[in-house]
Amino acid sequence: MTQAQNAFDDRFFELYMDPMLHRVREIVARCIPPDSTVIDIGCGTGEQCARLASSCRRIVGIDPDSKRIDEARARVAECRGSDAVIIHGDFRTLNRFDDETFDIALMVMRIHELDTEERLPVLRDVFRIGRRVILSDYVCPSPDTPHGAVARMCEMLTGIHHFDKYQLYHRAGGLRSIERQLKVVPQHVETNQSGTIEVCLYTGKR
């Protein structure tokens, strides 16, 4: 990827995606009790990790993108006195953790980016290592509103390969389909202000 493409991606995220995620991060933070141990799977640039660092006993972030990891490490380094560590690795990294290692296993806006065949194996690991789980991703079906159109445009502009995964996620039925396959039931569901992204809290397998 060229420097110009990187600059475009950063500006694009700042203008369109970040405002949609701001409310999501607030909802997620509210769902996590103080002094929890948390793993943020697909932590990206560490925004959520940094938000939680001051209230959580320990937070671990994992992401496969080396550029994002550098940003995440710099961001949590500013949270003095916190026990936060950022790991560069793909989601197979989860197999290093024992069952129920964390009070909360968190995965925000990463499920629709997974290949269809890896989605359930990854999520089984997420539910294995967390006593409680928070999943957040696009509402399915996407609302037929200007906000829904912006969300679809954002995904389309990210690239055709990425957009294909987004479409497959919607065709499969999103989080409701995943819940049926994993036999889990959300204890709390809340959406962001635009109604495009939902946050679901699970307290364990049914």
Based on CA atoms alone, the radius of gyration comes out at 16 Å
Strand content: 15-25%
Mean pLDDT: 88
**CATH-wise, what's the superfamily?**
Vaccinia Virus protein VP39
Number of helices: 7
Low-confidence parts: 1-8
How many extended strands?
A: 7
CATH architecture: 3-Layer(aba) Sandwich
Structure classification? alpha/beta
Layout: helices, strands, pairs:
Elements (H helix, E strand, L loop, with lengths): L2 H29 L5 E5 L5 H7 L4 E6 L2 H12 L6 E5 L13 E7 L7 H14 E9 L7 H13 L1 H13 L1 H9 L5 E4 L5 E6 L4
Parallel strand pairs: 1-2, 1-4, 2-3, 4-5
Antiparallel strand pairs: 5-7, 6-7
Helix pairs in contact: 1-5, 5-6
What does this molecule look like?
The structure is a single chain. The protein is built from seven helices and seven strands. Residues 1-8 have low confidence and may be disordered. The radius of gyration is 16 Å and the shape is globular. By secondary structure, the chain is α/β, with parallel strands linked by helices. It has one domain (3-202): Vaccinia Virus protein VP39 (Rossmann fold, 3-Layer(aba) Sandwich).
